[in-house]
Amino acid sequence: MSEDSGARWINCRAPEIVPSRERSMKPLVDLERACFGFRRRTILDDVSLTVERGESVAVVGPSGSGKSTLAAVVATLLRLQSGELRIDGQDVLALRSARLAAFRRATVGVIFQHAELVPTMTALENVALPALLDGADRATAEGRARRLLDEVQLSETDTPAGDLSGGEAQRVGIARALVNAPALVVADEPTASLDGPTKAVVADLLYSRLEAHGAGLLIVSHDVAVASRADRVLRLEGGRLTAQLAEVH
Ligand SMILES: Nc1ncnc2c1ncn2[C@@H]1O[C@H](COP(=O)(O)OP(=O)(O)OP(=O)(O)O)[C@@H](O)[C@H]1O
Questions:
Q1: For 223, which of 13, 16, 47, 243 is 20 to 30 Å away at the CA?
Q2: Residue to substitute in 67, 219, 220, 249 for testing ligand 1 pocket (most ligand atoms within 8 angstroms of CB)
Q3: What separation in Å is there between the alpha carbon of 21 and the centre of ligand 1?
Q4: Percent residues over pLDDT 90 in the chain
Q5: Mean pLDDT of 148-157
Q6: Taking every annotated instance into account, which residue ranges of this chain make up the domain ABC transporter (predicted)?
């Protein structure tokens, strides 16, 4: 999803950088009274959400209810039309394109349904890329990438990403999301395109690696087994976000 697609920019304030000590006392994600629509259709209607540091929060809901839109808003890929969003204490709506991109690279890892790797680059190059873009030198970026690929149990690091199976590609996606040691990972249907046994392996790796790295997680998933492993499960329906009280479906 591209930044600003279909959205109108309303909040226009001067950038404010919050000191890191002050940031660490605030929720990792603090979304308040968020509204977002595509053209005339309201998708998020006064939605508030917090994710604490190291916490995992799953969002479930009917198809088309706006789960991916919410994930893209929290991943700072789409801008809210009204409301507030602070991530790691930073008012992200106050940041414009270049600074927002730099903030996102350092703070938010994103995992997509189809991994979205560069097919001609190897697994190792795909994982190292965000670190290189964030200013790491090649040896450092590749060292981090190798360690993370080892963590997700991918030994064939020189295979072009286009030749990987769906499960392998998603393991690379998890490693890539973690390469800049983000405080937050946003995962949009990370297991939806995988078969049963592979889903379980990828979900295990996702939750265990995030816990090991102390990253918070916002995960959108149709999969009961995957969503119910989160610390909290929320339901998005009719533009509103509520606690999921009954069984996830
Ligand atoms: N770029 C866009 N322009 C216009 N409408 C869009 C755009 N992206 C999504 N939508 C619409 O917004 C609504 C919410 O889409 P979204 O993908 O967020 O829902 P979802 O809950 O993730 O759905 P699913 O579970 O089927 O993936 C849908 O009706 C979709 O068609």
A1: 47
A2: 67
A3: 37
A4: 75
A5: 89
A6: 26-248
Mean pLDDT of 66-84: 95
Domain with 147, as residue range(s), is 53-74+98-244
- The rounded distance, in Å, linking the Cα atoms of 173 and 116 is 8
Mutate to test the pocket of ligand 1, among 3, 69, 112, 241 (most ligand atoms within 8 A of CB): 69
State the complex-level ipTM.
0.96
Contact status, residue 60 vs residue 67, Cβ threshold 8 Å: yes
Query: What does pTM read for this prediction?
Result: 0.88
In ligand 1, which atom is closest to the CA atom of 66?
18
Q: Reduce the secondary structure of 86-130 to three states and give it as a string.
A: EECCEEHHHCCHHHHHHHHHHHEEEECCCCCCCCCCEHHHHHHHH
Residue at 239 is within a domain: yes
**225 within some domain:** yes
From start to end of 166-212, where are the E strands?
184-188
221 lines ligand 1 (CB under 6 A): no
Q: How many structural domains comprise the chain?
A: 1
In a domain, 24, yes or no: no
